[in-house]
Amino acid sequence: MCRHSFYMTSIYETTIIVKPDLANDQMKNLNNSIDKFFNENQISIGYKEDWGIRNLKSSINKYSKGSFKFMRFNSSSDFPKKLDGFLKFNTDCLRFLITKSTDNIDQATPQVNKDN
Asked: Among 53, 78, 82, 111, which residue has the fewest nearby CB atoms (within 10 Å)?
């Protein structure tokens, strides 16, 4: 068994859809709790984008809009599972998706300059 696989890291990205009606302090608290979770797990976020409030194709929990957050990070393969558990229990997150990325950690996404 190869012990080096434990230290292998990959670039991952997550897109989080947050309730659009959060007050500024609630949004700040959510961002702080996510940052704290990353820090506690010794994972640094390499890139972040706030895509703003966008229309949803179909409603999620009676919301027709959502505030979209994007981040890219470098981690071992066990961290995305921990992040999944963390986001599942956050009531302000409507949906999220965590995927392995083929982009550079600091590469901008095409969404950053799109209008809703």
From this structure: 78
The domain in which residue 23 lies consists of 8-103
SS3 sequence of 77-96: CCHHHHHHHHHHCCCCEEEE
Q: Starting from the edge strand earliest in sequence, which strands make up the sheet with 93-100, in order?
A: 45-60, 63-75, 10-18, 93-100
| Domain count across the chain | 1
Q: How confident is the model at residue 88 (pLDDT cuts 50, 70, 90)?
A: very high
CATH number at 96 reads 3.30.70.60
Q: Is the pLDDT of residue 116 over 90?
A: no
116 in a structural domain: no
pLDDT value of residue 84: 96
Cα–Cα distances in angstroms (integers) from residue 89 to residues 31, 55, 57, 85, in the given order: 15, 23, 24, 7
